[in-house]
């Protein structure tokens, strides 16, 4: 049974990413730009990382495939990868195709219309090397020459990082127990934090796109789940809810106000704290708003995959009908219309993607929901 708070937390994370990516792509008032002087929303990705590490490790422990004195068997390793591929690939490749087509067809976004570069970026996504590819493109100033605009296919950097984590984690689980994994994970966390202090100087640098902090903390939380959950259940519900929202608010503040080399480990620790609080299961998922967050959380993977394509498509339609000044406007009226329409359209499209692509209902060979 899914943890309702974890699902709601996924909803919060993807909404933060949407708020981050809306800026400047559709009509944006000055006050929206000004918010980013004090708070940013890219930390939603790091919340996803912690959730991902926790859910993957916890699923193996719950299946008794892996534990304190048990390594992952070869059969369990194969089953793990079958579940991951079945869960992630259909929607990922579908939206990769849509985004690649948009990159060739759209004229309202600069540095598009390069089929060979679009194909290269798609190959990097399929091969789980997109994070390294976009690091090379952005830090090497190759966008516009060898690389397309990262608005197309750029989101696959984080998915590639997660896939690389799945490879490393599953092979380590095949070799060592969860107890050793937890200890080794903290060492790796510390190592990457130290490396970041010296080399993490800009977004999409090699260290930035390789950060394992959140996923390591997620695995650590899963390894010590029984002890953590017994403590969290003793806390009052209202305190858990208040602490969760305060920590989410701090993630947004740190994303904008703290130096990058320090913000990554700080956001990861805050995200880990948020996931720990979510283990209770009846916190931020409570009430009508919590139910809405759960609904979004169920569709968060598809929403993450499709939201930029939806935003770009709406921008393209507005551009072709009324020109660049229309889609780059900063008036309140345009902002409300475009923000709400892009958000609602993203919800609708992600729901369709979730039901028929992500859950593989379009495929006759399987009608069961992936776990």
From TrEMBL:
GO terms for cellular component: membrane. Keywords: Acyltransferase, Membrane, Transferase, Transmembrane, Transmembrane helix. The chain crosses the membrane at residues 39-61, 88-110, 181-200, 206-226, 238-256, 262-280, 301-319, 331-354. One of its GO terms (molecular function) is acyltransferase activity, transferring groups other than amino-acyl groups. The keyword Transmembrane helix applies. Signal peptide: none annotated. InterPro entries: Acyl_transf_3_dom, Acyltransferase_3. Residues 4-351 form the Acyltransferase domain. GO terms for biological process: lipopolysaccharide biosynthetic process. PANTHER family: ACETYLTRANSFERASE, ACYL_TRANSF_3 DOMAIN-CONTAINING PROTEIN. This is Acyltransferase. It comes from Brucella tritici. The lineage of its organism: Bacteria, Pseudomonadati, Pseudomonadota, Alphaproteobacteria, Hyphomicrobiales.
């Amino acid at each position: 049974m899914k943890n309702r708070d974890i699902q709601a937390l996924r909803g919060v994370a993807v909404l933060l990413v949407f708020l981050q990516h809306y800026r400047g792509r559709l009509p944006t008032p000055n006050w929206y730009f000004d918010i980013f002087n004090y708070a940013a929303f890219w930390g939603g990705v790091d919340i996803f990382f912690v959730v991902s590490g926790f859910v993957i490790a916890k699923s193996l422990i719950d299946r008794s495939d892996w534990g304190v004195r048990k390594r992952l068997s070869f059969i369990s390793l194969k089953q793990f990868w079958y579940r991951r591929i079945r869960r992630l690939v259909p929607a990922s490749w579908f939206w990769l195709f849509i985004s690649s087509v948009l990159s060739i067809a759209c004229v309202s976004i600069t540095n598009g219309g390069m089929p060979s570069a679009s194909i290269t970026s798609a190959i990097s996504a399929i091969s789980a090397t997109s994070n390294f590819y976009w690091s090379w493109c952005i830090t090497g100033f190759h966008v516009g020459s060898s690389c397309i605009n990262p608005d197309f296919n750029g989101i696959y950097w984080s998915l590639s990082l997660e896939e690389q984590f799945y490879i490393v984690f599953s092979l380590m689980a095949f070799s060592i127990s969860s107890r050793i994994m937890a200890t080794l994970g903290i060492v790796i966390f510390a190592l990457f934090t130290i490396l970041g202090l010296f080399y993490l100087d800009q977004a999409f640098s090699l260290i930035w796109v390789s950060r394992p902090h959140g996923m390591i903390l997620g695995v650590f939380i899963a390894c010590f789940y029984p002890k953590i959950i017994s403590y969290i259940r003793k806390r009052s519900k209202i305190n858990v809810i208040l602490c969760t929202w305060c920590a989410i608010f701090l993630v947004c503040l740190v994303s904008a106000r703290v130096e990058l080399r320090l913000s990554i480990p700080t956001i990861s620790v805050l995200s880990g704290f948020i996931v720990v609080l979510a283990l209770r299961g009846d916190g931020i998922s409570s009430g009508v708003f919590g139910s809405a967050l759960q609904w979004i959380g169920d569709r968060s993977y598809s929403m993450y995959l499709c939201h930029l394509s939806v935003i770009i498509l709406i921008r393209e339609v507005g551009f072709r009908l009324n020109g660049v000044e229309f889609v780059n406007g900063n008036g309140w009226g345009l902002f409300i219309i475009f923000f709400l329409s892009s958000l609602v359209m993203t919800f609708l499209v992600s729901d369709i993607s979730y039901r028929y692509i992500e859950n593989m209902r379009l495929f006759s060979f399987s009608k069961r929901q992936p776990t």
